[in-house]
Automatic annotation (TrEMBL):
Ranges where the CAAX prenyl protease 2/Lysostaphin resistance protein A-like domain occurs: 89-176
One Pfam assignment: Rce1-like
Lineage top rank: taxon: Bacteria
Name of the featured protein: Abortive infection protein
GO molecular function annotation: endopeptidase activity
Source organism of this protein record: Marinobacter algicola DG893
Database matches in PANTHER family: CAAX AMINO TERMINAL PROTEASE (PTHR43592), CAAX AMINO TERMINAL PROTEASE FAMILY PROTEIN (PTHR43592:SF7)
Length: 194
């Protein structure tokens, strides 16, 4: 499929994702939020981040294959995401996935979950950060639930491993897999091309 001109320039899309990371980093620095990063070796971070992202993607993909309301309610969102993935070159998509993984995890797990962990119970921090994560990814109620579920998985992984880098890798690789599969194999998701 030939790429169409993006509705949002690649510079703006990359700048937006980078901006999320800057906001997260500034919040961490301004509020003195302790960021956990020493739980695992770099090799373990990469191994578990890639394995976690692949497993998470398989589970979410299987959910989209279930007949009924879930699949029907995701159809238009998957078509939108397919169009988005086709608008940009592969280097831009990889950069977007990396920036999203780093930036969104700095904000949602590092800053928000980290701050809430200081002031509430870990479970409250994980759930609240995950709901906020789902809200900013809102395309429909069903998509909100899936994004919140992904946020819960990432939040628990962060709490258990004390590794913000792990969830950054997990999130970034997950986004890369999702963009690749939606662009390369849209029929897997019932997306009609052409």
């Amino acid at each position: 499929m030939a790429r169409k001109r993006p509705q949002i320039s690649s510079t703006a899309a990359l700048g937006f994702q980078a901006g999320i990371g800057v906001v997260g980093l500034l919040a961490i620095l301004l509020f003195g939020i302790p960021v956990q990063y020493d739980g695992l070796s770099f090799g373990s971070v990469v191994l578990w981040g890639v394995a976690g992202s692949a497993a998470t993607y398989v589970v979410i993909m299987m959910l989209t294959w279930l007949p009924g309301r879930l699949r029907d309610s995701l159809e238009s969102q998957l078509e939108q995401l397919h169009r988005f993935a086709c608008e940009y070159s592969w280097p831009v998509l990889v950069a977007l996935a990396v920036f999203a993984g780093v930036g969104e995890e700095l904000l949602f797990r590092g800053a928000i979950q980290g701050w809430l962990t200081q002031h509430t119970h870990d479970a409250v921090a994980i759930v609240a950060a995950s709901v906020l994560f789902g809200m900013v990814h809102y395309l429909s109620f069903t998509y909100f639930l899936l994004a919140t579920g992904l946020g819960l998985v990432l939040g628990v992984a962060y709490a258990l491993t004390d590794s913000l880098l792990l969830v950054m890798v997990w999130h970034g690789v997950y986004d890369m897999i999702a963009l690749y599969c939606l662009r390369r194999f849209p029929e897997w998701f019932g997306v009609r091309v052409g």
